[in-house]
Structure formats: structure tokens, C-alpha cells
Design goal:
Layout (H helix, E strand, L loop, with lengths): L1 H25 L9 H10 L2 H8 L8 H13 L3 H26 L2 H12 L2 H6 L6 H17 L6 H17 L3 H4 L5 H5 L3 H18 L3 H6 L2 H4 L2 H9 L3 H9 L18 H5 L2 H10 L10 H25 L16 H14 L2 H24 L5 H11 L6 E5 L3 H15 L4 E5 L12 H5 L2 H18 L5 E5 L4 H20 L3 E3 L10 E6 L6 H6 L1
Parallel strand pairs: 1-2, 1-3
Antiparallel strand pairs: 3-5, 4-5
């Protein structure tokens, strides 16, 4: 009877935790527009399986998330909430999975505490609200770690199969999995039996074998160019990367600027709050989780947990001296579940009074972070621009996107345009952006002004040749401060020159400076100006 009552309480508590996890991830899910990377993921996924593989030849990511998103859009739709709800589903599932991991491998208390910590983790909530591959990655890595833990004392075929499948899924979701999978090497230390070590080696080889079909595409991907933006962050504060990473992992952290809606430069009191979970981790190291286990087994489990917490971050940190790839607040997401598990172990050891008191503090500091996320001012810049263009366009009109403007605006033009049956012609300036809508060599292009001028001239004449007289050309100008003046000026200047030659006319009444929009119209009259311009 007492056992049934405890089980009912446990079911009730995990149910409440899952409801909270779902609510925190769904709250204001559609508040913000899709940003650049989210829009790129969506446009790539819409191309279907074959198009996804072709597109990713110019990217630096594997294909699984895009395939999942492609299937998800067929069912859920393509608006912001529908797209982001895939990550929400994986985020909530990860909370339940970390509960199961803690319960199965330690105790129900550990599972519940770990589930609660992950449910309210600001970093995990942030990525559970993005149309990106990071929430699915965390889910698959928790699965991988669960089976790795089970194999320490149960060498079952189902555990080996689970380890292999979850490892393959993680690698095909994000290359960040390469930093976590080496945690399996700890198994060779903890399980000295040669037979078990051979099984682990074979399992890792099978994971690698299943990833081999993607290796030719991986080798052809321009990963070095796609991650050039990381170099500035790395050089600016590489020696503080690991401490800041642990700030980001734990609750009440000081997040880096590229996590747009989370707080940057938070108060010292909020940052000191991270000492609470760190202290709990050390408390957890001496807790006897199950009486039937020996001291050496407990130490082995703790060693594996600490390896899973530190090894991925240290690997990413060291490799970044060769090629900057360590990103605070992104790659460290893969160890957030391990941190949650360790915190859950620490809380489970404490008495009820101390555990509840510390949990209230943790929730308070977490909310101080989350309210910044939820309270950030929403932007409707691209939505408004898309609606304005569609309201003043016809099917034969063209849009020229400058800088990184294309992906998010093209997404909204497609979303709203499909409802009206509108189809517009799209062009990119610089033209290299068309090869990958999420990045281009901005610094290199800004140093080649003559090339930018010639590219602007060629693109303006290409638009002139491909649209019919009477059609409009919208210039959606980049908002980025460092390139706005120069890149926008080159193409707009070329269009103004053609307007002087009476090939185009600027429709000043339709210009919308606040949305970065300028409008030109192809003139009806035919003259020799086009040929002279081409010369």
C-alpha cells in the first residue's frame, strides 16, 4: 500500500514537471520572427530529401534534423509555432528521458530532481524554442548516455543496440555529437573485461560505419568558411571560454550576446547563483546511491558522470586552437542534461528542508533569467516587409535581397504569398549569398570593392533582362550596421544609374525606409540604353 502511494506521488510529480516543461517551452513560442538560421533551416527542409542533401553540400551540418522538419511540416504546418513545436516536443521528451535515466540508474528522487532541473534550464528552454537541430541532439545524446550507463552493469543486447542507434542518430543530427561520443571511452577503464571492451569497440565501429555514407559530403562541406564568425568570439576571450561555458550551463547564468533573448551582463548576484548547483555537484560525489553497490562502483559511476560533463567541453576547447569551433551557450548544451543529473543527485542527498529551500532559490534565479527571454521586445520587421511587398506586387515582380536579408524575408514571402498564390522572382546581392543563405565571406567581400561594383552592375542588368516592362523591383536592404552602407549603396546606386538611363523608375511613394525597402519599376519604353549599359 505504501509502495502504491509513493508511486502515485511520483507519477503526479513527474506529470507536473512535464506540464511545467511543456508550458515553459510553449510560452510565447511565436512571439519572435524566425531569425536567419531558423529561416535557413526551414527553407532547406522545404526542398525535400534530395534537395536537402544537395543544399547541405554548402553548409556544415548533417541532414537528419532537416528531414525530420520536412516531415513535421507536412503535418503541423509552416508558421513559427508549428516549426518550433518540433523542438518543443524533443525538449519535453528530453525532460522525461532524463527523469527515466535518473530513476533507472539511481533512484526515483534523482530522476524527479534531474527532470525538474532540466525542465527549468534557461539554456535548454532557449534551444527548445528554436527551429534548429539542438533540441533533438540533446534528446539523442541523453539516450546514448542512458545506454552507456546501463552497460556498466547490464550487458544486454537491447542496451548495445540502443547505444548504437542513438549514437548514429546523434551524429546525423549535429557534428557536435563528435564531442560527446568519446565519453564512451571511459567504458574501457570501468569495465576491464576484454569481452565487454571488444563489444564496445565493435559498437563504436558500427556507429562510424553507418556514418560513412555521409563522410564524402562532410569532407566537401565548407566548414572552415561557415564558422569564420566564431573566430572573433574565440580570440576575444578564449581563456575564459570554459568558465563562461559553465556559467551558461548552470542556472542564473550570464549568456553570450548571440543568444539574443537571454540576458547578457547580468548582475553579480545572479551570476553568484551558479555556485549553488556547483556546490550540489560536489555534495553528490559521496552519496551512496544504492546499498547493493560497492564503493568502487559508485566511484566508477561518478567518474563517468564527471567525464561526460567535462570531456566534451575540453575537447571542443582544445580543438578550437586549431580551428575556432567552441561556442559558449551552444556546444555546451550537450552537457546540460549531465549537469542536471548531477544536480539531481545532490538534491536527492539533501534533507527535504534543504532540498526545497535550495530549489526555491534555483527557481528564483532561473526565473530572473527566463523573464528576460520572455519579456524581450518582439520584432515584426520581416513579417511587415513581406506583407507590404505582397500588398503592392504582382506575380512577375522581383525582390533583390542584400546581405543576410534573404532567408527570413523569403520565408515570410513564401508563407504569406502561398496564401495569395503570389510568386515573385528572387535575387541576392552579393550573388555569393545565393549559394548559402546563412553565411558568406562578408569581410572578404568588403575588401573587394571593385568586385562588388561589377557584381552590382551584372545583377542589375540581369534583373533588367529577366523581368517584363511594368514589373517592380524591390530592394530589401540589409540591416547589418557593418555592411549596410556599402553593400546597400552599390546595388541601389546601380539601379539609380539605370533609372537615369530610363530603364527603371524609382517609385518613391512605395519606398519604406523603416522596413529597408526601396522600389523601382521597369519602364515600358525600349531604348538602346540596355546595350550601352552592358558595355
Amino acid at each position: 500500500m505504501e509502495v502504491d502511494l509513493k508511486l502515485r506521488w511520483e507519477i503526479l510529480l513527474i506529470g507536473l514537471i512535464l506540464v511545467a516543461a511543456f508550458g515553459l517551452r510553449m510560452y510565447k513560442l511565436g512571439k519572435n520572427e524566425l531569425w536567419l538560421d531558423e529561416a535557413y533551416c526551414t527553407l532547406t527542409a522545404k526542398k525535400g530529401p534530395v534537395g536537402i542533401v544537395q543544399e547541405l553540400r554548402t553548409d556544415n551540418t548533417p541532414p537528419l534534423y532537416y528531414l525530420l522538419l520536412y516531415l513535421w511540416m507536412k503535418v503541423a504546418g509552416e508558421d513559427e509555432v508549428a516549426l518550433r513545436s518540433l523542438s518543443v516536443a524533443f525538449g519535453v521528451a528530453a525532460v522525461f528521458l532524463i527523469y527515466c535515466l535518473g530513476r533507472k540508474n539511481f533512484s526515483p528522487k534523482v530522476g524527479l530532481w534531474a527532470g525538474l532541473i532540466l525542465a527549468i534550464s534557461p539554456l535548454h528552454i532557449y534551444y527548445s524554442q528554436e527551429t534548429r537541430m539542438y533540441a533533438p541532439l540533446v534528446f539523442f545524446l541523453i539516450l546514448f548516455f542512458h545506454f552507456l550507463l546501463r552497460l556498466l552493469w547490464e550487458s544486454r543486447a537491447s542496451n548495445w543496440a540502443g547505444l548504437i542507434i542513438s549514437g548514429i542518430l546523434a551524429l546525423y543530427t549535429s557534428y557536435a555529437a563528435f564531442f560527446f561520443l568519446p565519453v564512451a571511452s571511459v567504458f574501457f577503464v570501468l569495465r576491464p573485461k576484454r569481452k565487454e571492451q571488444i563489444k564496445m569497440l565493435v559498437s563504436l565501429l558500427i556507429i562510424g560505419a553507418f556514418f560513412l555514407p555521409w563522410v564524402p559530403i562532410l569532407l566537401s562541406q565548407p566548414s572552415a568558411q561557415a564558422t569564420t564568425w566564431l573566430g572573433a568570439y574565440w580570440e576575444k576571450g578564449k581563456w575564459l571560454m570554459l568558465p563562461r561555458s559553465f556559467e551558461a550551463i548552470f542556472l542564473g547564468a550570464n549568456y553570450p550576446p548571440y543568444l539574443r533573448s537571454l540576458p547578457h551582463g547580468t548582475a553579480k548576484l545572479l551570476r553568484i547563483a551558479t555556485l549553488i548547483p556547483v556546490g550540489l555537484i560536489f555534495c553528490s560525489s559521496v552519496f551512496p546511491w544504492r546499498k547493493e553497490r560497492t564503493g568502487s562502483e559508485r566511484k566508477g559511476i561518478l567518474f563517468l558522470l564527471l567525464a561526460a560533463l567535462f570531456l566534451p567541453l575540453v575537447l571542443a576547447f582544445l580543438l578550437s586552437f586549431w580551428r575556432p569551433m567552441f561556442v559558449v551557450g551552444r556546444h555546451d548544451l550537450i552537457v546540460v542534461p549531465v549537469a542536471a543529473l548531477l544536480l539531481g543527485m545532490g538534491l536527492a542527498k539533501l534533507g527535504r528542508f534543504w532540498a526545497l529551500g535550495l530549489t526555491c532559490l534555483v527557481i528564483y534565479f532561473t526565473w530572473a533569467t527566463l523573464k528576460t527571454n520572455y519579456g524581450s521586445r518582439p520584432e515584426f520587421y520581416e513579417k511587415a516587409a513581406a506583407v507590404y511587398i505582397l500588398q503592392n506586387s504582382r506575380a512577375e515582380d522581383a525582390v533583390v535581397f542584400t546581405g543576410y536579408r534573404r532567408a527570413p524575408l523569403e520565408y515570410y514571402l513564401g508563407l504569406f504569398g502561398e496564401l495569395r498564390g503570389a510568386r515573385l522572382r528572387y535575387y541576392s546581392f552579393p550573388p555569393s549569398v545565393a549559394r548559402h543563405l546563412g553565411w558568406y565571406d562578408k569581410a572578404g567581400l568588403l575588401q573587394e570593392e571593385e568586385k562588388l561594383k561589377s557584381d552590382a552592375r551584372r545583377l542589375a542588368h540581369l534583373v533588367l533582362e529577366e523581368i517584363s516592362p511594368g514589373s517592380k523591383v524591390w530592394i530589401a536592404q540589409s540591416k547589418q550596421r557593418d555592411i549596410r552602407e556599402r553593400i546597400n549603396r552599390y546595388f541601389a546606386g546601380e539601379m539609380q544609374r539605370l533609372a537615369q538611363e530610363e530603364a527603371f523608375e524609382e517609385l518613391r511613394d512605395l519606398n519604406y525606409p523603416d522596413l529597408g525597402l526601396r522600389c523601382f519599376q521597369r519602364l515600358e519604353r525600349e531604348s538602346g540604353t540596355r546595350n550601352s549599359s552592358l558595355r
